[in-house]
Amino acid sequence: MGQIFQHILDALPLLFAPMTIIAMIGGTAIGIAVGALPGLSATMGIAVLIPLTFTMEPVSALGMIAGIYNGAMYGGSIPAILLRIPGTPAGIATVFDGYPMAQNGQANLALRISLVSSSIGSAVSAVALLVLAPPLSMIALKFSAANYFWLAIFGLMTIAVLLSDNPVKGLLSACFGLFVGMIGIDMLTGIERFAFDQLELLSGINIIVLLTGLYAIPPAIDLALSPIKTDGDVQGMDDDASRFSWSSLLPVWAKSSVIGVVTGIIPALGGNVAALFAWNEQRRGDPDKEKYGKGAPEGIAAPECANNADTAATLIPALTLGIPGSSVAAVILGALLVHGLVPGPQLFRENAEVTYGFMLAMLVTSGLMLLLGRFGARAFVNVLKMPTQLLAPMIFILATVGVFAIHNSMFEVWLMLGFGILGYVMEKLDIPTAPAVLAVILGPIAEENLRRALLISSDGFLGIFQGPISMILIALILATTGLPILKRMLSRRKDKIAPAIADE
Q: Long-range contacts made by residues 490-495, C-beta under 8 angstroms, separation at least 24?
């Protein structure tokens, strides 16, 4: 521990050099803007920035990257709350309660909760990266292919069953997501699956296309068909934030930070999974489950804290083992290599000052995000002053431009519109869309690791049931999915028995 503090002290002069401070402020501002624009992501922002950092000092370049990373994860909540468009994939869970709060005249409070929760999550994640990187990275090493399979099934089943009042509808949505996740080239065999001879589908369906279609287009259709009258009163919303009891969110932040950090250190999950896990866990543990999805402040605090607690935690296996836990971590590893830094245990010995400077930058930019976000969010609240008749075409334009910019493909634009119509129908039938999105993310992970586990194991299917981690995950799956179904069955039985007793 003493050596860690010494490395931190050595890195402080590099971190607070004028050029590094400017880079961190600029990176955070750019990150918030990137996250707030639908279709863009932290991965894209960092990838575009890397060539511009060739001539910069390593700590300054990595400080700017840290700012973009943290800022983009928060920025995705702004359109999620105001327009029901997840700016980034991690913003999907924020839509559930953020948009209803904005519709209820609490847009400023929702944005403030998102900002504070994001800053707290980022700070906790940065501290975990600084202090716990070597021991926490060992947890990821203990996960086998079978463990990853059961972890993916656990996330998928809990969201599908618990997110919907009707488990059948939740599972139906999840099955649709599993189908979408299978489209493209099979990575193990190289065989084309469900591409229907369309060249554009060989690489699969981009998650941004699916998200934008399912979450941006349905509200635009609603607005176009039945414009909602609003008085546009945005003034006075600060009172909501000043009267709000922030202490009530402390347990939410504590639990969601842990979920985000643990999810982050497990490769291939990411902030979108962390946010959905945290939202679902918060709803499951709250006695008043009915308030979620209707504008519950805890429903914003949990996913925003978790997806930002994932940011630095994702870098733990990336920096210590060279294993990127997400696409963003992979891009950041590329940035390290550009500046002559080789990921792995030697990074902490040979380039300790730069490495700890980067980890400290993750902590500092979480504070800068809190300052810059206050100004940016207040400007975005003015979106609610616009007549709702203009919001529908504006959402269509933003969604179209954002999706087209991904690969300059009109095919993906038409695909997004198709998903949008499907999402509109699902809403009308009360079929949740979140299980479909999570299935697209977790389905390929489950499939790949199941097949890998079967190839490795000499016991056939029995091999995936071996090991303490697999047994724990299986028990969690049975507990979290079986108990709610059992409770519903018992409640229905009571409802049938009660009238019979009354008649007697």
A: none
